[in-house]
Request: fold
Amino acid sequence: MPEFPGGMPGLMEFIRQNIRYPQAARQSRLEGRIIVQVVIDKDGSVIQPRIFRSVNPVLSADAALCEEALRIVSIMPKWKPGNQHGVNLKVRFTFPIRFESPTSQIT
Reply:
């Protein structure tokens, strides 16, 4: 199984630090979870990113969330690649990116 530097907590922290809530989604008050699927290459590079599931494909603001999710993936560092019997492998990996309106995070 491939691993992001710092494991799942590291991945969630990377997303939290780099996420930019899109203006179109903010104006539409669109929140939710985008499921992203990537392939971690033999050298740990993140390749073939795609949106596995979006928040609401009917809404135009959904495209802004998908675009932001793919932007975050594009700036990720290399991962520790998947390995089986000492051989690095390409491995498909799926994870969520949660979008919450900045105003809903105020407590």
